[in-house]
Amino acid sequence: MEGASQDGTSCMFVPQRDYEPVRDAFGVTCRDGATLQCCLLGTPAKAGGKTLLYFHGNGEVVSKVSRHSEVDGLPNFRDCVDAMLQRNLAACLLVEYRGYGANEALGPPSVTAMLDDAEDVLAALAIPDQQVVVMGRSLGTIPALHLAALHPSLGGLVIESGMARAATFVGQRVSNSPSVAHREEFCKSGLAQRLLPLEAALQHYQGPLLVLHCKDDEVFPYEDHAYLNHRAAVGQATQEASPRLFNLSDAPEAPCALQIEKSMQGGPAALCLFEYGGHNFIWPLNWISYAHAVMCLMDGTLGKHGESFDGEPNSDWWTDMVACRTGGSGRVEQRAQTSRRWCCIA
Questions:
Q1: pLDDT digits (tens, 9 = 90+) for 259-310
Q2: Is the peptide bond before 221 cis (omega within 30 degrees of 0)?
Q3: What secondary structure letter does DSSP report for 304?
Q4: pLDDT recorded at residue 123
Q5: Which residue of 48, 107, 233, 308 shows the fewest CB atoms closer than 10 Å?
Q6: CATH class for the region spanning 10-344
Q7: CA torsion, points 260, 151, 43, 69, in degrees to nearest 10?
């Protein structure tokens, strides 16, 4: 699109090509007339189940995110989505960026185009805000928070390995570009002013919030990003209390530090910290707890059982997900049983 890259931010993207054609393709007509190719699983409903709107990270692509796992006992995020679709999730829309995958011809990507397209994709769902849960991973935090700022009554918000202070992050990336043209375009675009509301988005957001992050994240250190996002939601500028530590007894995962409080608007705001996983391996190293937390948010039970995931809103949550790919083998089912026993190590 003409002008899409004229904000100087194309230098911060790492566009990826498709591994394979995207199945369940869904085209969104954007404000400039371009068709943004995404992936739609299920059917959005105006009543009943919610729709998950997912924005992936910088070095990722929808054709990979939408793939099923080929490893027994290690589901992909797509397998988690399939399990939720069998239960109470109406649909999941995986959003692709310009310059990435099937939208390679629409590039180069830019933050301005990302924000505009996010608004157009949400509008294309044509369902009430309360029926939409927005999830952003890493760079996908930017469009996710943008939608939360514009639509504070969204049905849920998940920030995974995300950033705080998007305006500062984008500005620093462009400032570090060797291209003088990029820096000049950024200054003229007014994008910095457009990003500023994102920093206050969590203060006004009304729905349930889930922040997922690893303590060893090398891209966005959790002290500077995960804590700030969570504290912004609950109305405290700094971390005042250490999250309580929970462990999956006998499960092959590190303990998960969990803190659930009420946000400034009254909804549950959960901070879920994993010991290991860095920036890019949070799912494969912590997928049991990760999936459980997301399912609690989708079920509407996040924070309903105090500062834990005890109570199992749906005791077959794990079995459903594993059955999508493995048929519930004995080895995997045994792991399912251990994953349901949460204990406090405070």
A1: 888 888 888 999 999 999 999 999 999 998 899 899 999 988 887 755 445 4
A2: no
A3: T
A4: 97
A5: 48
A6: alpha beta
A7: -50
So what's the pLDDT on residue 342? 29
pLDDT value of residue 256: 77
Helix 282-299 and helix 330-339: axis angle, to 10°? 60
Helices (H) and strands (E) in the chain, counts: 12, 11
pLDDT digit string, tens, across residues 189-207: 999 999 988 888 999 999 9
Give which of 57, 201, 44 is closest to 132, Cα–Cα.
Answer: 44
pTM, to two decimals: 0.86
98 HSE (CA, 13 A, CB side) = 27
- The encoded tokens of residue 140 equal 């996908």
CA distance 328 to 184: 57
Directed axis angle between helix 111-125 and helix 141-150, to 10°? 60
By the 8 A CB rule, do 335 and 329 touch? no
Spell out the residues 6+ positions from residue 292 whose beta carbon is closer than 8 angstroms to its own.
309, 317, 318, 339
How many Å apart are CA 317 and CA 296, to the nearest integer? 10
| Whole-number Å distance between alpha carbons of 302 and 316 | 17
Q: Are 266 and 294 in contact (CB under 8 A)?
A: no
pLDDT at position 73 is 79
pLDDT at 316: 53
Contact 106, 98 (CB under 8 A): yes
Find out whether 252 and 339 touch, Cβ atoms under 8 Å: no
β-strands 35-42, 25-29: how paired? antiparallel
Question: Residues in the chain with pLDDT < 70?
Answer: 1-5, 236-255, 305-346
Contacts of 167 (CB under 8 A, 6+ apart): 192, 195, 196, 198, 199
Backbone torsions φ then ψ of 332, nearest 5 degrees: -70, -40
- Amino acid code (one letter) for 194: R
Give the closest residue to 224 by CA, choosing from 235, 209, 213: 213
